[in-house]
Structures are given as structure tokens and as C-alpha cells.
Write a structure and sequence with these properties.
This protein is mainly α and 454 residues long. The protein has 18 helices and six strands. Strands 1-2 form a two-stranded antiparallel ribbon. A two-stranded parallel sheet has the order 3-4. Bound molecules: arginine (ARG).
Length: 454
């Protein structure tokens, strides 16, 4: 069988042009969705009386066979038939003859491709959500297992106040929860059937698009046929959700890289996830995690590609839309693999409790606690801040620390200080007391862990 749709031409296609416009490489992964869409369309045609029951059964049987042939590698897409839609239709006609030649009534490749991409994206979201829930569980499990470990909390990458390491892990958890929310929200707008929009204007045939939408388990139905074929908002939203997720993964990765460096030494990454150097035998490099950090550039690039392709398109289908496939796939696959990489890294990392607690023991980090002590006793916070700042200045010039101060010296800075202040100047006491809602206080973090274990 020759090409199906070149009867109007007197010449064969230019081989370069044919190759250039073909999308078969990007369409391989759409094959199962294209077939599912065709089965659903066959049902709508049969309800409309455009396929009799026997023809409908033949078509559905042939489509299932094509799916098997493709899974088994016995049938492949051919670039001389442009795309997945023409390839499937041609094979269907070979297998089902006249009944197969009826399948394209009332539809177009324009609504078909929009449908295939929606079905693909719906699955991509579900698979990403599955992986994210795995990452969240690992974060909660590691937080629970380290819920008494104190580490320095940072601002400007400078030691700021002691916090629970679990509180840091749970801060990552919150980012992932928001990513899941974005994906779930975007899924609602993916879950809409464009099938029945035809090329752009609907059809004169009495086909009910609700039948195919229902058969595909799609909750919504297009309201405007022109919008249905050109709308790729669902892809842009999904790739944005992947970009922000990947940005979070990159930030988490950066923390793991810093913590595993010899400068910090807070954690050790498992050997099986690390690589070595071709020249320096001592090296243990965090390449896996570094690549997660880097891949944010790639996914954000996918978002920029996608939006740039869409900008300036006139109403209706344009072939430009074909170019939205590679960034869509790439964003989903990169984010999915990155989630898996970080899940493995966080699952396997070893926490160096002693190193973290040593780093968190510097009494400068307790300056805010001293100011809050004075504030509790009625001193205006600004005055308390200044009194403690003066103390800090004095210890810094003398090369001592807050912990070395006697009650008499403290009293000289402010008469409000009493002997009970000394028990405050430890990292553990500082963390124990920070029980404001959402704070790093030990009982607050335990409470949050209990909520998350439900
Ligand atoms: N292969 C195209 C795509 O992926 C669908 C075909 C629409 N072609 C056309 N000439 N209207 O978007």
C-alpha cells in the first residue's frame, strides 16, 4: 500500500522534506494511546451507525493486534507515513480492509494528536506522582530516624541558629507536597477529551464525542473545536510543574553536595551512588546528585522551548504544535529520573550526628536565644538585641565565646540577666524551646512527624 493521503499531488514527496516533517521518532511512545483513542472512536462511530457491529468488532480486533505487534517489535512506525496516526490507520486498513478505511470519519490527526498527548501526559503525571510519594516517604522516614539530631540552621550560608536535622528534611517534604498539588491540579485540565473536534470545526456526521471521552475515562469534554486542536496549555502547565519540581530537586541536591563535602562532613553518600576520579584515587564524587542539580537547566529549557513554540501561533492547528512533543517528554522523563536519584541518595545517606552537633554547638548561634530571654523579662526586643550584640562584640575581640561568660559578666551587659540564663546557652535547650507553630522545637517536629505518619 502506498502513501494514504497524497492523491492530490502529481509528485512524490522530496525525501528530505518527508523526513523533516515526519514525527515518527517522537511518536513511538504515543502508539498505545493512539490505538486506545482509535478504539474509543470506533465505539462512537458504531453508536452513530457509521460502523456496523461486525465492522466495529473487526476494527477493534485489528487495533488490538497492532498494539501487540508494536509491543513485540514486529511492527514499527515508518517515516514515509509521517506520523503515528497515518501509520496506525494504514496498518488498520491492511488488517481490516473496508471497515478499517471507515475509522477516520469525523476525526482528524489534529484532534487525534491532541488526544494522544493528553493521554500520555495523564500517565506521566500519575507516574511522577507515584515517584514523588516515594520520595516523601523516604524524607519522613529519615526525619523520624534522626529526630534528635541537631545541626546548624543557615541563612546566607552562615550558621544562624541550631535546628533539628529532621526539620531541614521536612522542609524538603513541604516543597514536594506543593509539587504534588500542582501536578494534581494540572491533571484536571489534562483530563479533557478533544476527540470529535476534527481538523478544527467539528463534523457534519452525527458522532457524539461524549462516547469516546467516556470510553477513555476522560472527565471533561472540549467546548470549542478550534481551541481543542490548538490547546497545549496542559503541556505547558505540566512542564512548568516539572520545572519548579526540578528546581526544588536542584536545591535539595545542592544541600546534599555541600553536606557531603569534607568542609561540612555532615553526611556521607552511599558508595554505590558515587563515582571516583580517573586520576585522583582518593576521590568519592557525588556526580549523581550533581547531575540532578544540573538537570534543572534542562527542564527549565524545555519550558522555555514550549512557551516559545506556542507564542504567536494563529488560531487553529499549526504544524508547529508537533514540536511541543520533545520538551514535554524530556521534562517528564528528566524529572522522573531525578526524583528517583534523590530518593536513592536520601534513603542511603549516612548522618554524621557528631559532626553536625559539633558544628551546631557554637554559642554565637544562641545570641537570639539570649535576646529572647531578655525580651521575656520585659525588655523591648530592640534593646535586648543591642545588649546581646555588645556582648558578642566583646567576646569576639577577646576571642572567647558566649558560653565562657559568667553571670557577673552577663549582668554587666544587662542587669536583667539572672543565673538561670546559663542553662539556656546550649544548642539543645535552644532547639527544645523553639516550639512556636511550624518551628524547629523538638515537640513540634515530633508532632508534625506524627501527623505525617498517619
Ligand atoms: N504529526 C502531527 C503532530 O504531531 C499531526 C498531524 C497534523 N498534520 C496536519 N497536516 N494537519 O502534531
Amino acid at each position: 500500500m502506498g502513501r494514504l493521503i497524497r492523491e492530490r499531488f502529481s509528485k512524490d514527496p522530496d525525501p528530505f522534506a518527508e523526513e523533516f516533517v515526519a514525527s515518527v521518532e517522537d511518536d513511538e511512545r504515543l502508539v498505545p494511546y493512539d490505538i486506545e483513542g482509535s478504539i474509543a472512536h470506533a465505539r462512537a462511530l458504531s453508536k452513530a451507525g457509521l460502523l456496523n457491529p461486525k465492522e466495529a468488532a473487526t476494527v477493534v480486533r485489528a487495533l488490538r493486534r497492532i498494539r501487540r505487534e508494536h509491543e513485540q517489535g514486529k511492527w514499527k512506525l515508518d517515516a514515509t507515513d509521517e506520523d503515528v496516526h497515518m501509520n496506525v490507520e494504514k496498518r488498520l486498513i491492511q488488517l481490516a480492509g473496508r471497515a478499517g478505511a471507515k475509522i477516520h470519519a469525523g476525526r482528524s490527526r489534529n484532534d487525534q494528536v491532541a488526544l494522544d498527548l493528553r493521554l500520555w501526559t495523564r500517565d506521566a503525571i500519575d507516574s511522577l506522582l507515584g515517584r514523588l510519594s516515594g520520595l516523601r516517604k523516604v524524607l519522613v522516614r529519615r526525619a523520624r530516624g534522626t529526630s534528635d539530631v541537631i545541626c546548624p540552621g543557615y541563612t546566607h550560608l552562615q550558621r544562624a541558629q541550631p535546628v533539628l536535622f529532621a526539620h531541614v528534611l521536612l522542609s524538603f517534604h513541604e516543597m514536594i507536597v506543593r509539587d504534588e498539588g500542582r501536578l494534581t491540579d494540572c491533571r484536571k485540565r489534562v483530563d479533557v477529551s478533544p476527540l470529535g473536534a476534527g481538523a478544527l470545526a467539528g463534523t457534519s456526521l452525527r458522532i457524539d464525542p461524549r462516547i469516546s471521552a467516556k470510553a477513555l475515562g476522560l472527565k471533561g469534554l472540549f467546548a470549542n473545536s478550534i481551541d481543542a486542536v490548538s490547546d497545549r496549555d496542559f503541556a505547558a502547565e505540566f512542564v512548568f510543574a516539572c520545572s519548579l519540581l526540578q528546581t526544588h530537586l536542584s536545591q535539595i541536591a545542592e544541600n546534599l553536595i555541600l553536606w557531603s563535602s569534607s568542609e561540612f562532613g555532615f553526611i556521607e553518600l552511599p558508595d554505590e551512588l558515587c563515582t571516583s576520579s580517573s586520576i585522583m584515587p582518593q576521590k568519592k564524587n557525588a556526580d549523581l546528585v550533581e547531575l540532578v542539580r544540573a538537570k534543572s537547566g534542562r527542564v527549565v529549557g524545555d519550558l522555555v522551548s514550549l512557551l516559545t513554540i506556542l507564542k504567536g501561533l494563529p488560531a487553529g492547528y499549526n504544524r508547529d504544535l508537533q514540536e511541543t512533543k520533545p520538551p514535554l517528554y524530556d521534562a517528564a522523563e528528566t524529572a522522573g529520573a531525578s526524583v528517583q536519584a534523590l530518593t536513592l541518595a536520601i534513603k542511603g545517606l549516612v548522618v554524621r550526628k557528631v559532626v553536625m552537633e559539633e558544628a551546631a554547638s557554637g554559642s554565637e548561634m544562641l545570641a537570639t536565644d539570649l535576646a529572647e530571654y531578655l525580651t521575656e523579662k520585659g525588655m523591648p526586643f530592640r534593646d535586648a538585641h543591642q545588649a546581646v550584640a555588645r556582648l558578642m562584640k566583646r567576646t569576639a575581640t577577646k576571642g572567647t565565646s558566649l558560653a565562657d561568660l559568667t553571670v557577673a559578666e552577663l549582668k554587666r551587659a544587662s542587669p536583667v540577666f539572672e543565673a538561670d540564663v546559663l542553662s539556656r546557652i546550649t544548642a539543645r535547650e535552644s532547639v527544645r524551646r523553639r516550639n512556636s507553630p511550624g518551628g524547629t522545637g523538638i515537640s513540634r517536629v515530633r508532632q508534625r512527624l506524627r501527623q505525617l505518619s498517619r
